[in-house]
Design goal:
Layout (H helix, E strand, L loop, with lengths): L1 H25 L8 H13 L1 H11 L4 E3 L8 E3 L1 H19 L4 H4 L2 H18 L4 H25 L4 H26 L19 H19 L10 H17 L3 H18 L4 H17 L1 H10 L8 H6 L8 H19 L10 H4 L27 H32 L3 H20 L9 H21 L5 H10 L1
Antiparallel strand pairs: 1-2
Length: 485
């Protein structure tokens, strides 16, 4: 009888849905076809939240970017609707359950993220473009909610940390293949390399940033001493070569620089170089630069090598600030951001409004052949200058505080961890996050799912490991999980 009742409900619901679909399609209301998709998302959110998070990570590299759906607002399909739904679900569930995991909420990284969201809300109220700023606020809320707060709960199961990396990398390899095939049709030249990854990645810089975030992990897995992965080591090594090739052909100089910086962090931690020595090194380098400033300025002024398909010339063009249009335009954007900050130093112009306001702050002497006043050629190209112009001095200080806190957490986890698993994955996350923080001097992508997913995901991994090391979560449970790996 119970089985017959279930079948009756199934047939009834299916019949009603088919009837409603037929009527809606007849009247050209095709949005009803999204209902099954929405129903699956709701079911997973209620009963399989861990699975939904992991599926979302898999979909991130595959999501297509629609640059403008109205009022300058872009959207990533299908991830943004899922993230918005997860934001609402988390808010309702938190209210219903009477709170969230207090150990996570009280962690310094979580506190900084909460302060950042609060300041974005305040500066959205004082924004020059309220609709744009509040849309940005909502998107940041769903990014941080899903890719950080929900992620911390998923990563309490240690095996999900491994799943996280591969669930991004595997579909990403498919996007790399798509990019290389498109690029090959243009002779792998530098100019076409800027856009052949569309519509999955906005341009070569975000594509390169994502590659740099995951290369440290693949390197670690390639040289990991683990008998369980011995059979697939050649495959992992092949993936590493594949990612390196993609990075070279992306012509993303910021990604190349960031990987060098990440390698330096690895060496510092591996060889336990003391902070006093590092500090002295920085001081000596600063004094040397001050003494030799005329020679340095002369060198930069004489460098006329422009970005090129030739890798050697492309590397040399990094220091060309006199004729390379890309480099000069970045300086133009930074100067405009600083000019905007000086006019509104406390609250800024409002989150996500830089591209709509910077045009009038450009000086004719700073403009390049790719300059525009229309706000259609990107933003401040800096994870630091952007917040300075949009959210004032406090906005920049919060970003710096967040990044420093993440680094401190990562170093602490690496140094205090006794298990090989924690040491390897904390190093991977720390080096990967460092690549993006360095990349952030030249570009900013923490307003896109492509980068926020790995950035906040790796941050969440470090936080969970930190809480396990502090014994805020059950040590016995951790020990049992590590034995299963």
């Amino acid at each position: 009888m119970q089985s017959s009742s279930k079948l009756l409900w199934l047939y009834s619901v299916t019949g009603i849905f088919i009837l409603c679909t037929a009527i809606s399609v007849y009247f050209e209301h095709f949005e009803i076809l999204l209902l099954p998709f929405a129903a699956v998302i709701i079911y997973l959110a209620l009963f399989k939240l861990e699975l939904l998070y992991l599926v979302t990570i898999f979909l991130v590299p595959l999501s297509a970017n629609l640059d403008n759906i109205g009022m300058g607002v872009g959207v990533a399909i299908p991830t943004d609707p899922i993230l918005f739904g997860l934001l609402l679900f988390t808010i309702i569930k938190t209210i219903y359950d009477g709170g969230f995991d207090k150990q996570v909420l009280l962690h310094p990284v979580s506190i900084f993220l909460s302060i950042q969201l609060a300041w974005v809300f305040i500066t959205a109220l004082t924004s020059s473009m309220h609709i744009i700023s509040f849309k940005y606020l909502i998107s940041q809320m769903w990014f941080i909610t899903t890719f950080y707060f929900i992620a911390t709960q998923v990563f309490k199961k240690i095996k999900n940390i491994q799943h996280f990396f591969w669930l991004y990398i595997i579909p990403f390899c498919g996007i790399i293949a798509y990019t290389l095939i498109n690029h090959s049709q243009h002779g792998f030249d530098q100019q076409s390399g800027n856009w052949v990854m569309k519509p999955f990645y906005n341009d070569h810089t975000s594509y390169g940033a994502a590659l740099a975030l995951f290369i440290p992990f693949v390197i670690a897995k390639t040289f990991e001493n683990n008998n369980k992965t011995a059979i697939i080591k050649p495959i992992i090594f092949g993936v590493l070569l594949y990612l390196i090739l993609a990075t070279l052909l992306s012509y993303t100089r910021a990604a190349w620089i960031s990987l060098i910086g990440g390698w330096a962090v690895y060496l510092i931690l591996k060889f336990k170089i003391k902070w006093q020595i590092l500090f002295m090194g920085v001081v000596i380098a600063a004094i040397s630069a001050l003494v030799m400033q005329d020679d340095i300025r002369d060198y930069f002024s004489k460098n006329k090598v422009n970005s090129s398909t030739d890798i050697n010339q492309h590397v040399k063009s990094m220091s060309n600030v006199t004729s390379d249009a890309s480099n000069k335009e970045r300086i133009n954007r930074w100067k405009s951001a600083y000019a905007m900050f000086k006019e509104r130093p406390v609250f800024g112009w409002g989150p996500a409004t830089y591209s709509f306001n910077y045009g009038s702050f450009q000086k004719e002497s700073d403009k390049t052949i790719i300059s525009t006043n229309a706000g259609d050629m990107g933003n401040a190209h800096s994870e630091y200058m952007g917040p300075l112009s949009e959210s004032g001095l406090l906005g920049l200080l919060i970003v710096l505080g967040l990044f420093v806190t993440i680094l401190i957490t990562g170093v602490r986890v690496y140094k205090r961890s006794e298990s090989k698993f924690f040491r390897m994955y904390s190093m991977c996350c720390l080096v990967g996050l460092t690549t993006y923080m360095i990349h952030g001097f030249l570009n900013n992508f923490l307003d896109t799912d492509k980068i926020t997913a790995p950035f906040y995901g790796m941050t969440a991994i470090l936080v969970v490991m930190d809480l396990y090391n502090q014994k805020k979560y059950s040590p016995k449970e951790l020990e049992e999980q590590l034995e299963e790996l």
